[in-house]
Specification:
The chain has 358 residues and is α+β, with helices and mostly antiparallel strands. The chain has ten helices and nine strands. Strand 2 and strand 3 form a beta hairpin. Keywords: FAD, Flavoprotein, Oxidoreductase. Belongs to the acyl-CoA dehydrogenase family.
Length: 358
């Protein structure tokens, strides 16, 4: 397996990084940057990178989407890319042909924003919403939290427990009767979350959904989050190195001190390991068996690396410390909040051991 990026992928990475550097605001909006999101959808067609062309996508690979996630994570771009990508993946894998053509076009073009209403520890194996059939309609009752960018989403993909006990995926439209979207306080100020309260809410079941089909959707979400965390960790290392070269103590840059060198070296080692794990997981997306092993591994590795890099970068910035005026606190907030999505690192390693038969 070749872990090198192609020339086209390197060019794409450089172009996207330059675009985000020019377009991402220094002051993060309270909600999200709608203008930036529309440009990412319209000018760059970012949400549909690995989606087949017949549904409005570019027909590339998950590696390309992982590159995009890495750059979005590096820039902490205030856009609902992750939330929308999870919903798109669920519809692509669990919807029938009619649903794919109807729903994906709007989600990929930016006409609508999707959200995946199951980012907690039991997203793939359990559900907090119950589905019942009444007069030919599917009605959902229960609560979902956390829902990334739920307050700006136009539709939600909601896992629900059906009558026979299996978990099915349903689409709920924003504004549906009985649906309440409650924005929650978020430690990560760059990515808001919400809670869905559903009381007999009409929904449309994804018609190709079968028991167990939600597992690869959540695994792909783990891979994309890992790629995003990789970008954040890289940004923390760059900020730390830049500061260590400029900050002087005792007549010399602090980067010349052994303790600071060791912290930066340890950050780089973990980032390299994370990059390999993310690339392997993205390349394994075509095989459900390989993805089941690679996804929790990549998520756990990336989460631990991002937290370590954010903490070490703050320590290296000892003269500044934890201050609102410096961007490092945003990376620390993103690291800690993303670490908990779909379960902690310990839970992901336990899942990996279980899937590997250990």
């Amino acid at each position: 397996m070749d872990f090198r990026y192609s020339t086209e992928q390197d060019d794409f990475r450089a172009a996207l990084r330059g675009f985000l550097q020019r377009s991402t605001p220094e002051e993060t909006p309270e909600e999200y940057d709608a203008a930036l999101w529309q440009r990412l959808c319209g000018d760059l067609e970012l949400p549909g990178l690995h989606i087949p062309a017949e549904y409005g996508g570019a027909g590339a690979t998950l590696v390309d989407t992982a590159i995009a996630c890495t750059e979005l994570g590096r820039a902490l771009a205030p856009v609902p890319f992750a939330a929308n990508a999870f919903a798109v993946e669920a519809i692509l894998r669990l919807g029938d042909e009619e649903q794919r053509k109807e729903l994906l076009t709007k989600l990929l073009s930016g006409a609508q924003i999707g959200a995946f209403a199951a980012c907690g520890p039991g997203a793939a194996s359990g559900a907090t919403v119950v589905a019942e059939e009444r007069d030919g309609r599917t009605l959902l009752t229960g609560n979902c939290t956390p829902v990334l960018h739920g307050h700006v989403a136009d539709l939600f993909v909601v896992p629900a427990i059906a009558s026979r006990g299996e978990i099915t995926a349903c689409v709920v439209r924003a504004g549906a009767p009985g649906l309440t979207v409650e924005r929650l306080p978020s430690f990560d100020i760059t990515r808001p979350v919400a809670r869905l309260r559903l009381s007999q809410v009409p929904a449309e079941a994804l018609r190709a959904s079968r028991p167990g089909d939600l597992l690869p959707v959540v695994d792909l979400a783990r891979v994309l989050l890992a790629a995003e965390m990789l970008g954040g960790a890289e940004a923390c290392l760059e900020l730390a190195v830049e500061y260590a070269r400029q900050r002087a103590q005792f007549g010399r840059p602090i980067g010349s001190f052994q303790a600071v060198k060791h912290m930066c070296a340890e950050m780089l080692i973990e980032i390299d390991a994370t990059r390999a794990a993310v690339m392997f997981a993205a390349m394994s997306a075509t095989s459900a068996e390989e993805l089941a092993i690679a996804a929790p591994l990549a998520k756990a590795q990336a989460a631990d690396t991002f937290v370590q890099c954010a903490e070490s970068a703050i320590q290296i910035h000892g003269g500044i410390a934890f201050t609102w005026e410096h961007p490092l606190h945003r990376y620390f907030r993103r690291a800690k909040s993303t670490e908990a999505l779909f379960g902690s690192s310990a839970q992901h390693r336990a899942l990996l051991a279980d899937r590997a038969g250990l």
